[in-house]
Amino acid sequence: MTFGGPVRALIVGASSCGSQAAGLLRRLAAKADLVIAADGGADRCLDAGVKPDIVVGDFDSASTHALERVEDAGASIERYPEDKDESDLDLAIASARASGANRILLTCVTGGRFDHALVLVGSLVRAADLAPEIHEPSLSAWLLDAHHTGSLDVAEEGARLSVIPVGGPAEVTASGVRWPLENDTLEHLGSRGLSNVVEGGPATITVHRGTALVVHDVR
């Protein structure tokens, strides 16, 4: 499946994200041109009443019932062997690229195992050119990269946000926050950017050099 113009793809993971996940998934799907379920994400889509366009994975977590239903509804199934080097999420990102996506949103991806969470960060860094965003009931996160999408505004007064360099140190400016930064270099995975607060916003976060993950706690 390919599209003629810019595409925003929603990638749905297999993590359980609580009772509010279904409503959020529906809202995100309404914004997307393409919905891709990563393995057990097919079940998350069905739970929310969302039909994925593509389902990708080795299908060790998706239920047989979900696969049958989404295939009957016309979803394209991309099946991979269990003995593979890529995660299902990486395969879903590759599928988004192949479909012409220039932006990706992700949901149901942050719950579960700690090792999967670490690999998720690496997947986001490798997909920096797709301006990846994560939206969960309890948080939103954006990957900012100096070579691609380097700036973000957060308007919610009192919102707590963290700026965490990933893939190396990052040079960051943060205005409209309690502890502003002005072309400051933050260490790779360092704690200096943790738990800042929007004050007199909107806050603007700009990454001048490197890559950083901006995490916003949803209240």
Provide keyphrases for this structure:
219 residues, 24% helix, Rossmann fold, elongated, 2 domains, 14 strands, alpha/beta, Jelly Rolls, 10-stranded mixed β-sheet, single chain
Structure description:
The protein is an alpha/beta fold and 219 residues long. It folds into 2 domains: 7-137, 3-Layer(aba) Sandwich (Rossmann fold); 143-217, Jelly Rolls (Sandwich). It has helices spanning 21-31, 41-48, 64-72, 88-98, 114-126, and strands at 7-12, 34-38, 54-57, 76-79, 101-107, 133-135, 139-145, 151-154, 160-165, 170-175, 181-186, 196-197, 203-209, 211-217. The strands form 2 sheets. The chain has a 10-stranded mixed β-sheet with strand order 4-3-2-1-5-6-7-14-9-12, sandwiched between helices. The chain has a 4-stranded antiparallel β-sheet with strand order 8-13-10-11, with no helix packed on it. The radius of gyration is 18 Å and the shape is elongated. It starts with 6 loop residues before the first strand and ends with a strand. The mean pLDDT is 92.
What characteristic shape results from the CA principal axes?
elongated
Please give the count of helices: 5
Radius of gyration: 18 Å
What can be said about the biggest beta sheet?
A: 10 strands, mixed
Q: What level of helicity do the residues show?
A: 10-25%
Helix-strand pattern: EHEHEHEHEHEEEEEEEEE
Distance between the termini: 37 Å
For the record, the count of structural domains works out to 2
What share of the residues does DSSP label as strand, in percent?
A: 25-35%
Under CATH, the homologous superfamily of the largest domain reads Thiamin pyrophosphokinase, catalytic domain
Q: Please provide the count of β strands.
A: 14
Enter the CATH topology name of the largest domain.
Answer: Rossmann fold
Q: Uncertain segments of ≥5 residues (pLDDT<50)?
A: none
pLDDT average, as an integer? 92
Q: What is the CATH architecture annotation of the largest domain?
A: 3-Layer(aba) Sandwich
> What is the level 1 CATH name of the largest domain?
Alpha Beta
Structural class: alpha/beta
> Which strand order do you get reading across the main beta sheet?
4-3-2-1-5-6-7-14-9-12
